[in-house]
């Protein structure tokens, strides 16, 4: 009997592709730059999507991260128009501004679109309520974000890109950890599926031979 070889952990790809989505001015770029550089600059260019490539350490293992910071997503059609990016990604960060109610409603639509495009993979999603430093202008309660995250099975943090990098790093890393596990599970599934398929084909070929003889 020939033993099938399971893909070892080393053979598994540790590339992670992550897309950052949300409506205008919610802090998508501020959060991405905060995670990658630990800095908060204040004003950011926002007319084009930016793809950042970075080598990061996660739990002592290296990961090649591709972080795609998108320009605003205002309408649901904007999300569906980004079908290719949704297919490309292993995980998603969906941002809203706790002081902007509309951005929260958009976040909900964005998550639903991701789930409809990625229904077969259960892609990890991190929902972020940003600008927590502006609590006094809050238009969306913590509980509302929390309930949405439970409904949509995603991770949830309220935080502030302006207030320091620790919580941002913690939230992003928590998503990347889930994405890494998810990606490995998908690979193992694919491996078993393709081997089952190969075995079935070789069985069918053998039976075919027997009948032809
Ligand atoms: N007070 C406060 N301001 C923030 C925070 N995060 C971002 N900002 C500000 O909000 C504005 C928009 O931030 P961006 O990161 O450019 O937002 P964006 O979502 O990338 O915007 P677009 O790319 O135009 O869609 C900037 O003036 C930031 O300085 C935060 O946590 N607190
Ligand atoms: Mg931006």
TrEMBL record:
Enzyme class: hydrolase
InterPro entries: P-loop_NTPase (IPR027417), Ras-related_GTPase (IPR051065), Small_GTP-bd (IPR005225), Small_GTPase (IPR001806)
SMART domains, sorted: RAB, RAS, RHO
Keywords: Hydrolase
GO MF term list: G protein activity; GTP binding
Superkingdom per UniProt: Eukaryota
Catalytic activity: GTP + H2O = GDP + phosphate + H(+)
Gene3D superfamilies registered for this protein in UniProt: P-loop containing nucleotide triphosphate hydrolases (3.40.50.300)
EC number, as in UniProt: 3.6.5.2
Family, per entry: Belongs to the small GTPase superfamily. Ras family.
Designated name of the protein: small monomeric GTPase
Species for this entry: Owenia fusiformis (Polychaete worm)
Lineage: Eukaryota, Metazoa, Spiralia, Lophotrochozoa, Annelida
